[in-house]
Amino acid sequence: MKKQLTLFASAAILSFTAGAQQVTFEEYDLDNGLHVILHQDNTAPVVTTSVMYHVGAKDEDPERTGFAHFFEHLLFEGTENIERGEWFKIVTANGGSNNANTTDDRTYYFEVFPSNNLELGLWMESERMLHPIINQIGVDTQNEVVKEEKRLRVDNQPYGNILAEVKKNIFKKHPYRWATIGSLDHLDAATLDEFLAFNKKFYVPNNAVLVVAGDIDIAKTKKMVKDYFGPIPRGKEVTRNFPKEDPITSQYEAKAYDPNIQIPAIIACYRTPSFKTRDARVLDMISSYLSQGNSSKLYKKIVDEKKMALAVQAVNLSQEDYGVYALFALPLGSNSLKDILKEMDDEIVKIQTELISEKDYQKLQNQFENQFVNSNSSISGIANSLARYHMLYGDTNLINSEIDIYRSITREDIKEVANKYLKPNQRLLLEYLPKEKTEK
């Protein structure tokens, strides 16, 4: 989120967003269940083709974690009509770029091309969906890629395992309890048949949304979509029935160790509701109020004025089924984790007992207005939002209307939600510590 706008600029944005920020789109379903969203913007000769699959780490077998992230890599290996190793070469040779990413809830693939290569983008994504080549050579190759990624981004990265430690401690039943990247031992143990079965179950048109956004002709695009994606067979319906978490009724504590750090961290974590709820948006505002920018409450008090911490952050990590609200800090000097926790708790109590000031409330509104303006500033960003709002929220038009939810949040709402979720008896306290040296 960018720096806050002035009141004058915010007023200008309020009037501007009513018209210029409106994202127009058309959506429909193919007979095979593929949901299609088209967004036309002819201001630049660029087009994004993207497919989001409703499959993430939470859809995995507990004994085969890491499959969803693994497939993010595996499905670039090649298809019946795209030879192994040629995917990225084709994209680059035609002036494009592409990428993919995975969360606990979904997997997203996209290409950005000059608009005269729209058909190429559609063909490539239909190839990925219709007949990818999944063989032992590709599995072995991508297994090494994933291992290197885990070593680089997690195992050898300072504080790289914090989120994984939070998840495994705050979730006891729900599959959010394991890391998105999963277990390398599980991937090593998996058979080729298991990978083929995972693909057959989840990478089907009725478990996906296709978004085409940018410099397109709607009628011509519809024909190409039907030609390339219409023949793909519908898969079996994916059913989900994840176990519900028991409420946290008393504070519990955990410790984790990281050989890559010298400064310990304290993390206070609260289990919160789905990002589809209004309360989740209120928690977004609370996190911004506490730690967004150098003038935020936690930063100004603990880092700037008292100089007790090197860093402090409040973050609302919302997901489709549950969320985690986390307070994080790194102590400075001789200040203890307990000292830092008390300072953070004091600020939470203030929110729970007093209404935030009108000035701070307006600052929050300005921040979220600014965020909204910037969120729809690129075609690729719009494509991602359209897919995400349809698939995970069930309302594509949230790309235009979600800001109204934030606008409707009051100071009283902030106080009420802080009292509802941010209670000491409803949290996990995690001490993230330097790994103890063993005696030789």
From TrEMBL:
This is Insulinase family protein. The lineage of its organism: Bacteria, Pseudomonadati, Bacteroidota, Flavobacteriia, Flavobacteriales. Residues 1-20 form the signal peptide. Residues 36-176 form the Peptidase M16 N-terminal domain. It comes from the Bacteria. Residues 190-367 form the Peptidase M16 C-terminal domain. GO terms for biological process: proteolysis. Keywords: Hydrolase, Metalloprotease, Protease, Signal, Zinc. InterPro entries: Metalloenz_LuxS/M16, Pept_M16_N, Peptidase_M16, Peptidase_M16_C. The keyword Hydrolase applies. Belongs to the peptidase M16 family. GO terms for molecular function: metal ion binding; metallopeptidase activity. It holds the Pfam family Peptidase_M16_C.
